[in-house]
Each structure stands twice: as structure tokens, then as C-alpha cells.
Amino acid sequence: MNKQNAVYASKDVNEIMVVDDQPGIRMLLQEVFKQTDYQIVTAANGEQALELLKKEDVRLVLLDMKIPKMNGLEILHKIKEIKPGIKVIIMTAYGENAMVQEALQSGAVAHFTKPFDLHELISAVEKECPKNSSGV
Q: Which Gene3D superfamilies does the record associate with it (predicted)?
């Protein structure tokens, strides 16, 4: 069994959730991380994200901060209530410093402004959620 199949077959799955209302971003990140030992689940809004978080073994969340109905800060706070130790990397197209600072103070581990450098994002994910390490 090759390394990739061993990771998927094990209980210590390196699962990442992408929460973004833009289908193109969700598809892009899904394709990028398909090449790695990470499995991706996606959510288009906060409600979907919180439901998936309760069902899936998610270790890291890539969270867009501007989503209709429930903003990124609300989602971040609820994520941290459900799984306090989970890592969250925020993404925004707006560069709103106050929101970014509040998110970082609320437990986000990193921030990326769209359009982001994919190599830098992958490096941040690998740093915060090392492959094959135990879950939250």
C-alpha cells in the first residue's frame, strides 16, 4: 500500500475544511490539496461548515471572512466552541485590519489576503497541520 492510501485508510486522516461562498475558490483548493496527503471537505456557508465540523474529523479550517448570512468572525467563534483546539486560517479579499486582528485574537493562526500565493498557503497548512500527525 502506498503512503497516500495508508493515510486515507488510517484513522489519523489529515482533513481540511474549506469554507468559502465562491465555488471557484472551493474547487481550486480542492484540486490543489488533492495532490497531497490531505483530504478536503468544503462548505459554502457557515451553517454547512458547522454541520460538517460536527460530523467530520477536521483538523484545520480555511475560512473566508466575508460570507453571506453568517460572517467569518461568527463562524470562527462557533468553530472554536465546537472544537477549541482546531486550527483556523482566515482568508479575505478585503484586507480589513480590524477584522483580521479580531480573528487572530479569537484563535485564528494565520491570515491570507485574496488573491493569495498558493505555495504560501500550502506551507502554512503544512506548518499548522503536519501530515500524518494525530487529530484535534
A: 3.40.50.2300
